[in-house]
């Protein structure tokens, strides 16, 4: 554990928490579109309709922000393409910048190069932030002189840095590393700089006003600052937010810090996690750290199996648990790994602790608004006939399929050198690209030619197709109409 002085954690790490934001299909979603009283606006922050679910999401967020909901879980239940994922992402964007939000698809848990429970544990720990307060010592002042002596070969450098405030002046000896840092920042006499003593990081704060007449040495964007007052060495409080998972990775000897960027972290030993938990608890008691429970979103949660569900149940009891949001488009479905059927494919003991929010199919007006928002987002102009036919198609297929068609239709429009996407482009795109229903029809026409696997848990619209499944069960989908 000695390795974890918080200042050694790069502060850039916390940005990684929200990198899911650029998820293409949802890039127009910028929040939940609620007013101060948590009432959903007609159309705001890219969100349209689905008022009840948005309001419920807003209420739950409020409880998260007040720290009242860690260890709870909620479930978005509704037909495909009714905005479950979109609302979850809207929630993520409403959270503060240092509240972690993690998103996984349930099926990822099975495909990673680690056990299911390890994958879930990592997802949980990614969703818990630790805000660490630290005092560091900094050297701050105006550079009077930098003097560097190179050895004959140039391999070693030594030097002296003279730095002052309005009240004092000090000379520091410089080693190789510090000389490199100063030359990288192109520090010269007259610059006001800050040096973090623990990390050795050099920051240029600006040029001293006293030098404002040295015209030749500066560009147009030079920023002038006062020469600092008082002591040259000062203590300063800095705050970093990192997730428990990031602390795990950095301290796992076999992984190291680079694993964070490679994204390939492998399994982490339970003993290490215990050590880190007790260290964090210690920091909390000493007032050095604060726990920030974040949000873990598990999409298509019915794909988890019974082992994962019992893990979830236990993990939610844990003192360090995030808010878990799940989404499912199944009605009554088989719980994977068992022969039992239950609502949304979730076992009863888990269902029991979950707040369920249902999403409804969209009205044609809402569909049109969403199509328009997507067109704006993708810089596509659409004729009113084009909009008409897209929204009609949405009622026959799904909203997601129709939104995907937009960019294909635009390509076709560009090919015929038209400014706007018209009904003919949409019709042709519709012919080129099958939606799920037509694809299934096509497959059943081809059953003699396509290889189909027996007993595979592959259901379209909730109905098993091809041969009946070996356990004779069938999954009841949520009605789309
Ligand atoms: N209320 C909404 N406002 C704006 N866009 C939406 C809304 N609901 C869904 N969408 C968009 O429609 C598409 C399908 O929605 P999605 O959230 O993926 O549905 P689900 O997760 O329920 O299957 C996505 O591109 C999503 O961003
Ligand atoms: Mg979804």
Automatic annotation (TrEMBL):
Enzyme Commission code(s) on record: 3.6.4.12
From the UniProt record, list the coiled-coil ranges.
none
Q: What InterPro entries does its record include?
A: AAA+_ATPase (IPR003593), P-loop_NTPase (IPR027417), RuvB-like (IPR027238), RuvB-like_C (IPR041048), RuvBL1/2_DNA/RNA_bd_dom (IPR042487), TIP49_P-loop (IPR010339)
Describe the location of the AAA+ ATPase domain by residue ranges: 70-361
Does Ubl conjugation show up as a keyword for this record?
Answer: no
Name the segments for region: Disordered.
Answer: 460-481
| One annotated GO molecular function | DNA helicase activity
Please give an example of a GO cellular component term from this record: Swr1 complex
Query: Could you tell me where this protein is found in the cell?
Result: Nucleus
Keywords recorded for this protein, A-Z: Activator, ATP-binding, Chromatin regulator, DNA damage, DNA repair, Helicase, Hydrolase, Nucleotide-binding, Nucleus, Transcription, Transcription regulation
What Pfam families is this protein classified in?
A: TIP49, TIP49_C
Q: Name one GO biological process term.
A: chromatin organization
Q: Which reaction does it catalyse?
A: ATP + H2O = ADP + phosphate + H(+)
Function description: DNA helicase which participates in several chromatin remodeling complexes, including the SWR1 and the INO80 complexes. The SWR1 complex mediates the ATP-dependent exchange of histone H2A for the H2A variant HZT1 leading to transcriptional regulation of selected genes by chromatin remodeling. The INO80 complex remodels chromatin by shifting nucleosomes and is involved in DNA repair. Also involved in pre-rRNA processing. DNA helicase participates in several chromatin remodeling complexes, including the SWR1 and the INO80 complexes.
Family designation:
Belongs to the RuvB family.
Subunit relationships: May form heterododecamers with RVB1. Component of the SWR1 chromatin remodeling complex, the INO80 chromatin remodeling complex, and of the R2TP complex.
Protein name listed in UniProt: RuvB-like helicase
């Amino acid at each position: 554990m000695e390795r974890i002085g918080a200042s050694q954690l790069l502060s850039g790490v916390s940005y990684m928490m929200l990198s899911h934001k650029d998820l293409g299909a949802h890039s127009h979603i910028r929040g939940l579109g609620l007013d101060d009283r948590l009432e959903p606006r007609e159309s705001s922050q890219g969100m349209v309709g689905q008022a009840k679910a948005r309001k419920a999401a807003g209420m739950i967020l409020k409880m998260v922000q007040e720290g009242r909901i860690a260890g709870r879980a909620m479930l978005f239940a509704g037909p495909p393409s009714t905005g479950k994922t979109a609302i979850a992402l809207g929630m993520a964007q409403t959270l503060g910048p240092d509240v972690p939000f993690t998103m996984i698809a349930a099926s990822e848990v099975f495909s990673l190069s680690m056990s299911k429970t390890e994958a879930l544990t990592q997802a949980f720990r990614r969703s818990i932030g630790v805000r660490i307060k630290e005092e560091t010592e900094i050297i701050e002042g105006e550079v009077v002189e930098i003097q560097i002596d190179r050895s004959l070969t140039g391999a070693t450098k030594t030097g002296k840095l003279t730095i002052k405030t309005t009240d004092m002046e000090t000379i520091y000896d410089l080693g190789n590393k510090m000389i490199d840092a100063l030359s990288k920042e192109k520090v010269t006499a007259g610059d006001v700089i800050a040096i973090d003593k623990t990390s050795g990081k050099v920051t240029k704060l600006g040029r001293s006003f006293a030098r404002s007449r040295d015209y030749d040495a500066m560009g147009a964007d030079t920023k002038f600052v006062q020469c600092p007052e008082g002591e040259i060495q000062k203590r300063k409080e800095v705050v970093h937010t990192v997730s428990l998972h990031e602390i795990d990775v950095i301290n796992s000897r076999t992984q190291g810090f680079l694993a964070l960027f490679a994204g390939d972290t492998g399994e982490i030993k339970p003993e290490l996690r215990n050590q880190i938990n007790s260290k964090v608890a210690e920091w909390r008691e000493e007032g050095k750290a604060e726990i920030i429970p974040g949000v873990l979103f598990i999409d298509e949660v019915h794909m988890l199996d019974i082992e994962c569900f019992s893990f979830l149940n236990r993990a939610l009891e844990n003192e360090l648990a995030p808010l878990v949001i799940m989404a499912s488009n199944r009605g009554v479905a088989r719980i994977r790994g068992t022969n039992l059927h239950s609502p949304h494919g979730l076992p009863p003991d888990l269902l029991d602790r979950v707040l369920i929010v249902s999403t409804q199919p969209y009205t044609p007006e809402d569909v049109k608004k969403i199509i328009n928002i997507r067109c704006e987002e993708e810089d596509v102009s659409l004729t009113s006939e084009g909009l008409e036919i897209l929204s009609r198609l949405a009622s026959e297929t799904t909203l997601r399929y129709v939104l995907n068609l937009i960019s294909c239709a635009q390509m076709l429009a560009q090919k015929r050198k038209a400014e706007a996407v018209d009904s003919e482009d949409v019709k042709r795109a519709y012919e080129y690209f099958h939606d799920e229903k037509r694809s299934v029809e096509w497959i059943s026409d081809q059953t003699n030619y396509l290889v189909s696997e027996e007993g595979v848990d592959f259901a379209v619209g909730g109905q098993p197709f091809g041969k009946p499944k070996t356990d004779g069960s069938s999954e009841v989908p949520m009605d789309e109409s």
